[in-house]
Automatic annotation (TrEMBL):
Subunit structure comment from the entry: Homodimer.
Enzyme class: lyase
HAMAP family from the UniProt entry: LysA
Keywords: Amino-acid biosynthesis, Decarboxylase, Lyase, Lysine biosynthesis, Pyridoxal phosphate
Domain (Orn/DAP/Arg decarboxylase 2 N-terminal): residue spans on this chain: 53-300
Residue positions binding substrate: 296, 331, 335, 363, 391
Lineage: Bacteria, Pseudomonadati, Pseudomonadota, Alphaproteobacteria, Acetobacterales
Location of N6-(pyridoxal phosphate)lysine modifications: 79
Similarity section: Belongs to the Orn/Lys/Arg decarboxylase class-II family. LysA subfamily.
The name this protein goes by in its record: Diaminopimelate decarboxylase
Pathway named in the protein's UniProt entry: Amino-acid biosynthesis; L-lysine biosynthesis via DAP pathway; L-lysine from DL-2,6-diaminopimelate: step 1/1
NCBIfam families cross-referenced by the UniProt entry: lysA
Gene transcribed to yield this protein: lysA
Catalyses which reaction(s): meso-2,6-diaminopimelate + H(+) = L-lysine + CO2
Pfam families found in the cross-reference section: Orn_Arg_deC_N (PF02784)
Amino acid sequence: MTSTHPDPTFQTLLNNHPNLSYEGRQGLVMDGTSLTDIAREHGTPCWVISADTLRQRAHALQDAFRARNLPIHCHFAVKAQDHQACLTVLAHCGFGADVVSGGELRRALAAGIRARDIVFSGIGKTDDELELAIHHQIGQINVESVEELHRINALAQNMQQRARIAFRVNPDIDAQTHSKITTGRAEDKFGIAHDAIPALYRKAQTDMPGVELVGLAVHLGSQMVTAAPFRKGYERIAALVRTLREDGLHVSDIDCGGGLGIAYRNEQAPPPAMLADVIAETLGDLDVQLHVEPGRWLAAPAGVLLARVIDVKDAARRFVIIDAGMNDLVRPAMYDSWHGILPLNEPDTTTEECVDVVGPICESSDIFARQRSLPPLKKGDLVALLDAGAYGTVMSSTYNSRPLAAQVMIEGDRKAIIRRRQTLEELLVQEAVPDWLARP
């Protein structure tokens, strides 16, 4: 969604990121660790994620629900940040996992998350993936279609097991966010139409021995910053629960999904208390086990992408060219997303210039900022792209034969490489030339 408000000032960006500060010669510091030191030691582009920030936000979310005396199971949306180090931090905080592929399911298990704390969502689960989930007896499979329901029932019976499932409801609610991350409208591919649920629920609960149907799930979209769509969606779910119970059907669980947004630019991003209040007011009296699936809200502010200025080009516009590209952070190219940019050396903010910050990829869409007011930057300067901890590394690629960037985790005064920088040799070794093709 395009903003009509001015960009945040340099000081506002800092105020909105309490884990960042400038500390004299250290420059920009994240949770006590100099980002300049990391860039010098590990090169750029380089991802940095803070275990402290991740943990603090996890506890803040849990505290919001405790304040409403609302027991809830939290499942981290692995699609937002799938590194096992991050999953391990959240597992220690008591989080389960929300996964959308067999690969994510295996990652969650490898990180020590218990199978019963895993929820499997997603519209395109293969038979192999479903068998994996059934074999491990995960906590819940969110069923996205009638066809998938029949497949799960048949697979579970063949395996002589019962799969624990919930129906993902499409409530036909507009999440009032970017169209590409809205998932609860009738025209979106996700879930089962809400008016089809009652008849299907009865059939599954009474005629399908391969499934244990426990309740309903809903996910409206991502980067939601107002209460209204949450409330409308959950009110529709509450009405469905009452309808099902009036028909003598059993409902024990409601999966509320995720979607809570953050302040990338100038959004009035709500605290987790808003979500807790809405859930308490709409679903809190139904005597069900509640689940939430946060991703972005937890991980995005915990991560930054470090980059170095390759050159500054003066043409029709002034271009600051950095060594990170859309292959590293694709969100601006894909969604026109806005990310704050801060120099690693504390700048003189009395002088600013209007520039386009661009990457080296051979695509016109490889732009991180258009006509952004920034302190003057020159070749060799280091910058941090903010709020990159979610949908950053997980969406990166090797386009233009650019190896994957290094990833560093920090915690207190400790830092560790959690993914070393890929080499070009490692890219090439994955390829094979057929033996009938002679080398020129």
